[in-house]
Amino acid sequence: MGEQIFDKVRLRLILFLNHWQNISMRVPTRENRTRVLRVCGAVVLAIAFLHPFATFASNPKAQPSNRGAVAVGPEYDTTHVYVAPENIDALVNSFVATFGGSSLKRSVANVTPVSSSTELQAVLTPVGVISVFAYQTPVPFPFGDERTGYLVADMDQAIKAARAAGAEVIVEPFKDPIGIDAIIQWPGGVKMQLYWHFKPSTNPPLESIPDNRVYVSKDQADNFVRCSVTFAEGKIVDDDTHADAGEIGRQGETYRRIRITSRFGNMQVLVTDGHLPYPFGHEMTGYEVKDLGATLVKAKAAGVKILSAPYTTRDRLTAIVEFPGGYIAEVHSLVVH
Fold it and tell me: Are the beta carbons of 191 and 148 closer than 8 angstroms?
């Protein structure tokens, strides 16, 4: 398109140039001929100057991308929670009672590429979002193994970027009632959902961004971090090879902890030998609150169990809790020095 426009402009300029050349031959004085030739020279320069811009406009590969990153925002990073149908009310109510916020209208739908049915409800809180699934049919494989859902700006672009970064697509994109989903797997066996909605979502911004807590082996840690950072266009903000292992139930020891931030949100990569006391490793998300003590009081009043008592590290006060229905999470507040 740009080259076609340029050709039209070039043709008009050439006709203009020929016209002035003919005039210059009939101009009687040397001074006037010089003036005409200057006009012709300016036309030649204009053609040379405009051509690169026409080429640029006609070549999409030459233009800077305006698509941006695949991520939309951390308020759309949702933890997937699978519970029995009889526990969905207790889970949703206790989660809201602990963190505030509200739940969206519950629905029944098929959100897999094969025949299935689940109750589905999203819970929006100031510290993070969960998507609750209570299946009324057996859960098709590999659903239930994905830990989180990332909203992406463009599914095709996201799938291409994930594969290029080193992920495998274990469930190819498929339509559900409100959008398109896929499931990918990263080195180390970390599975997550990518999703895109037909109608743009409008979740409120978060007061604090939760941690996607990923436990990986020493063998795959660097590979996983490299791949996930590449895909998310993220940044490693801390790589502590001697972090306090008391925060994963092994007081008096150290381990490697990597913190990553991106437009998808925060990620905390916990590199271990797999010798983890219960309940560590079962939690998928860490929620940051202003006052851990006050939050735990509200949580216990709502029927939440404290599985691991508060533990103080260099920069956090952390605990592990279990919500009705079996959802295990980490909750922490920052330590001010």
Answer: no
